[in-house]
Amino acid sequence: MYPKQSVVAMLLAGGQGSRLGVLTKKLAKPAIPYGGRYRIIDFPLSNCVNSGIEAVGVLTQYQPLVLNEYIGNGQPWDLDLMNGGVQVLPPYQRNRGADWYKGTANAIYQNIDYIERYNPDFVVILSGDHIYKMDYSKMVAFHKENNASCTIAAINVPINEASRYGILNTNPDGSIYEFEEKPKKPKSTKASMGIYVFTWPKLLKYLKKNEEDPKSSKDFGKNILPSMLKSGEKLFAYDFKGYWKDVGTIESLWGSNMDLLNPNVELNLSDESWKIYSRNPVLPPHYIAKGARVQNSLISDGCNIHGEIDFSVLFPGVQVGHKAIIKDSIIMPGTIIGDGAKVQYTVISEGAVIGDNAVIGARPEEMLNKKDWGITVIGDNISISANTIVKPKSMVEHNIFGG
Amino acid sequence: MRGNSVLGVIFSNVGDDLIREFTDKRAFGSVPFGGRYRMIDFPLSNMVNSGINKVAVITKRNYGSLMDHLGSGKSWDLSRRRDGLSVFPPFGSNKGDFNNRMEMIYSIAKFIKDSNKEYVLLSDCDVVCSINYADVLNTHIQNEADITLVYKRGVFPQKATRMMVFSLEHDGRIRQIRIDPKLKGECNFGINMTIIKKQLLLDLVYGCISNSKIDFDKDILQKNVTKCRVYSYECTGFNQVITSMDSYFEANMKIIDKESRNELFHSKAPIYTKIRDDMPAHYGLSANVKNSLVGNGCRIDGEVESSIIFKGVKIGRGSKVSNCVIMQDTIIGRNCNLNYIITDKDVTVKDERVLMGFRSYPVYIRKSSLV
């Protein structure tokens, strides 16, 4: 028997994140590097630990290698525990055949056994594609107080953006009377953050019921929540205030990294009381050379900087050559930027090599036609030879040889 | 060489008397170095990188910060069921005041005897270097040596005490050991890394203790230099012996240099240390950093030149920090000017302060001081 864990968290980390293009070619979205020394999944994992949740199931499916290796035994998050800890849960074969996870609800359904062995009162459902700091224990307390079946975390969004989200329409007491997925005419600005607290016996009941419905797409937002609402269950919205960003697109991933450089954005990663933990190689401190100039940037261990860096985020072990210029860009671990290269408004993935004097991306104000402008993306382990020009908005998946 | 036949023994307090300012509140092994490390990281990482996976760390006093740093040994992959890291604070029956290697070894004689290793590697924490002990062991075996002592060829370190100088035969055998001789110019001096067969070590130590002889260098090494086969191994590559505040400062300044850094931190033999989950260093609008090493978690808004900036340091706008070693979590306010200064942990320098040392006399500011 496993000792009881009152709260079990289930982290949905199987999504492909196709809108991130080449960045997720070999990587599940939650494993994407963020903020100079983190991966996206560090946020929900650290939030769990900081909230006192000690049993976390991570559901993986798409390109799990890097993610599995990264999570490992959970030690960086103090989740290598005797009772509980982190457990990676891939789809598996059973005596009546094997199945991929067919939807978010189905993924949880397939892992009922994992949840049941802790005999929990509540299950927290999380996703691996948001950057935010949140105390889930407060949300669980709110859920308990209201004696709810399900509580959904909600954030206020501008009314003109509300039609991009799942919108919660609530009564004055916070209970939800309607759930609208991407409404054309939103009635409220409370957007679902994709974070749910369920009373476990209730969720179990609806998971089983939903599984029997052949027409269901086995999704929380589309099926489980509407079905609970229809049956008269108590659903509440939990208002969250603070920084929260979906990093599902290149623009939002870039923007969220840039937010770390903005003193007016309330995302503080050096807060001792709510640390974000991560797994990193041990590298020496970074070196800034004589001719270098670094401003408004985040620089990580093991970097060697000889060029000019402005408004950029550099991950561990990045090498920047003499007279190279990096502006408004994100350079992921181990990438090498040659002498005199110019990188602007670009995201470069891990282990890429940019040749001398190459020009990658451009500033929006340099463009004749603003429509041609966008963030440039270079895939992992891509080589770009010297003097090459890579146009803005391009997504480079293959090596480029010859100028 | 995984799971090899060597037991590592590290003396974390030898050297405490050399830089009393640092060791007032900590063991020499936990003196911060190079932006993110502690002195003990070097012998520990070198041992682990050489395949040694059973290490004893002997402490004598002020071992709080050292214990905190080592933890279970996880950061060095030494948290294991078989073998792993063992830390030995002073042991009851030994009156708690043993202060030399002989008595320290004697105090853990049972642990050494019970280990299933054939050799013992003894090391202090006062040398910053990257050395492959597997290679030292191979040389030891090839020479059919009883004892192998690692040395450095160079000018005798200043202010050093109890230094051994070796006279060598052509084949590397040590003919003579002198302790603290008056010398000028280059010589071969020992850097207190010793490989010796376990049984021989125990026999020699038991023999000495029963005769009330407690000087490891004199009564074991010097006395047996002709009786035993004592060989030498030269430590080449980057290495800095730290014997004083000046040499500590010089060693820090040296690793700013690219060649030294590449030798000390090459990717095949990383130097491991305890992880602290700081965010990357944040450079502000008016930051201007040249020729410096900077750790994670720093917030830099001022000018920095030719300095080592440890983790979590804050340097305010308009301040200028040159030729300094600024240890972790130091806070330097606005419009300060620091030159040739070593600040220990958690120092606060208020706005507009001017602190000046000189290359040959870097000024040290104690842990948690307020300037």
Q: Estimate what percentage of residues of chain B fall within beta strands.
A: 25-35%
pLDDT < 50 runs, ≥5 residues of chain A: none
Termini Cα gap of chain A: 65 Å
Could you describe the largest sheet of chain A, including whether it forms a barrel? 7 strands, mixed
Defining key terms:
heterodimer, A: 403 residues, alpha/beta, seven-stranded mixed β-sheet, 33 strands, globular, B: 371 residues, Spore Coat Polysaccharide Biosynthesis Protein SpsA, Chain A, UDP N-Acetylglucosamine Acyltransferase, domain 1, 2 domains, nine-stranded mixed β-sheet, five-stranded parallel β-sheet, 10 helices, 28 strands, 22% helix
Q: How would you sum up this structure, described in words?
A:
The complex is a heterodimer of chains A (403) and B (371). With 403 residues, chain A is of the alpha/beta class. In chain A, 18% of the residues lie in helices and 28% in strands. In chain A, strand 4, helix 2 and strand 5 (85-89) form a beta-alpha-beta unit. In chain A, helix 6 (200-212) crosses helix 7. Chain A is globular and about 65 Å long. The termini of chain A are far apart. The mean pLDDT of chain A is 92. By secondary structure, chain B is an alpha/beta fold. Chain B folds into two domains: 3-264, Alpha-Beta Complex (Spore Coat Polysaccharide Biosynthesis Protein SpsA, Chain A), CATH 3.90.550; 282-365, Hexapeptide repeat proteins (UDP N-Acetylglucosamine Acyltransferase, domain 1, 3 Solenoid), CATH 2.160.10. Helices cover 22% and strands 29% of the residues of chain B. Chain B has ten helices and 28 strands. In chain B, the strands form six sheets. In chain B, strands 1, 4, 5, 6, 8, 9, 10, 11 and 12 form a nine-stranded mixed beta sheet that branches. A five-stranded parallel beta sheet of chain B has the order 14-17-20-23-26, with no helix packed on it. A five-stranded parallel beta sheet of chain B has the order 15-18-21-24-27, with no helix packed on it. In chain B, strand 9 (164-168) and strand 10 form a beta hairpin. In chain B, helix 4 (101-107) packs across helix 7 (198-210). The model of chain B has no long low-confidence stretch (mean pLDDT 90). Chains A and B meet through strand 16, strand 17, strand 18 and strand 21 of A and helix 10, strand 14, strand 15, strand 16 and strand 19 of B.
